[in-house]
């Protein structure tokens, strides 16, 4: 049986939850979220450091703590995960993380168990290409390539080959986390370099409090209008705050 490493809500309890999609092109859609543990990047403002910033991790994060791996992750059989997903009366799934595409073989096994009646969305940092075995299960890619302000090296945050493949994929949307108005120039350069249509570009304010989101939205909304890009808020932060399992 294949297994997936998931994040936890509290120790031993996997982070599988029913909520409204809070970001991007499916904002507002009831979905079952499955949060995978582990990430290949280390964004200093990451809102889910408990998926990767474990004790001993050499990276940096703006928070003041590291996380114990044992109480913040749990490994489950895909059969167990499928049963937990089926318990919700909802056929839209969002695999998020961490970086879910680091565990594609078991994700493919999970999707095969669930069958064709589920709509599968992926939240990914865009550094990993889909494998042939998993690609056929995916309906929508919500990609968040990271900009310089994330604190990752350029080579870590931008995998040219993966991004070029994603840019040609009609299932892909590009959701950029924006902290400063100047970040728009980096987005424009990536859009040009990878031929990403304006229609596919969505800017989202960085922030884990309603006040921070509102402050950045005040200049980000007109910036999007000016550039012809989409804007997304972070609905779940307004509804539930920065909490696990929401
Ligand atoms: N409601 C809700 N919507 C989300 N969209 C993307 C999320 C993520 O953490 O990737 C997320 C999340 O954590 N909660
Ligand atoms: S890529 Fe996503 S999960 Fe990974 S560190 Fe950055 S924000 Fe966090
Ligand atoms: Mg989140």
From TrEMBL:
Origin species: Blastomonas natatoria
GO biological process, one term: tRNA queuosine(34) biosynthetic process
PANTHER family in alphabetical order: 7-CARBOXY-7-DEAZAGUANINE SYNTHASE
Role this protein plays: Catalyzes the complex heterocyclic radical-mediated conversion of 6-carboxy-5,6,7,8-tetrahydropterin (CPH4) to 7-carboxy-7-deazaguanine (CDG), a step common to the biosynthetic pathways of all 7-deazapurine-containing compounds.
Signal sequence coordinates: none
Reactions mediated catalytically: 6-carboxy-5,6,7,8-tetrahydropterin + H(+) = 7-carboxy-7-carbaguanine + NH4(+)
Top class in the EC scheme: lyase
Database matches in SUPFAM superfamilies: Radical SAM enzymes
HAMAP family: QueE (MF_00917)
UniProt domain Radical SAM core: residue ranges: 26-242
EC number(s) given by UniProt: 4.3.99.3
Quaternary structure annotation from Swiss-Prot or TrEMBL: Homodimer.
Residues the entry annotates as binding [4Fe-4S] cluster: 39, 43, 46
Single GO MF annotation: magnesium ion binding
Cofactor binding: number and manner: Binds 1 S-adenosyl-L-methionine per subunit. Binds 1 [4Fe-4S] cluster. The cluster is coordinated with 3 cysteines and an exchangeable S-adenosyl-L-methionine.
Domain of life: Bacteria
Protein's pathway: Purine metabolism; 7-cyano-7-deazaguanine biosynthesis
InterPro entries the record matches: 7-CO-7-deazaguanine_synth-like, Aldolase_TIM, rSAM, rSAM_sf
Protein name stated in the entry: 7-carboxy-7-deazaguanine synthase
UniProt cross-references to Pfam families, sorted A to Z: Radical_SAM
């Amino acid at each position: 049986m294949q297994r997936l490493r998931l994040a936890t809500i509290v120790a031993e309890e996997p982070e599988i939850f029913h909520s409204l999609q809070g970001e991007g092109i499916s904002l507002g859609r009831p979905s079952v979220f499955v949060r995978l543990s582990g990430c290949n990047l280390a964004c200093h403002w990451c809102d889910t450091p408990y998926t990767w910033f474990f004790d001993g991790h050499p990276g940096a994060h703006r928070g003041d703590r590291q996380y114990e791996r044992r109480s913040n992750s749990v490994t489950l059989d895909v059969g167990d995960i499928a049963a937990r997903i089926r318990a919700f009366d909802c056929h839209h799934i969002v695999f998020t993380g961490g970086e879910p595409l680091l565990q594609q073989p078991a994700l493919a096994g999970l999707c095969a168990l669930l069958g064709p009646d589920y709509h599968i969305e992926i939240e990914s940092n865009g550094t990993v290409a889909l494998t042939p075995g998993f690609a056929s299960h995916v309906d929508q890619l919500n990609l968040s390539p990271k900009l310089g302000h994330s604190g990752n090296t350029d080579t870590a945050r931008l995998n040219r080959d993966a991004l070029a493949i994603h840019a040609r994929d009609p299932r892909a949307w590009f959701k950029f986390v924006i902290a400063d108005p100047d970040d728009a120039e980096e987005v424009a350069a990536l859009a040009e370099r990878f031929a990403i249509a304006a229609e596919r570009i969505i800017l989202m304010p960085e922030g884990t409090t309603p006040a921070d989101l509102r402050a950045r939205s005040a200049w980000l909304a007109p910036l999007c209008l000016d550039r012809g890009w989409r804007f997304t808020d972070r609905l779940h932060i307004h509804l539930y705050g920065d909490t696990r399992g929401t």
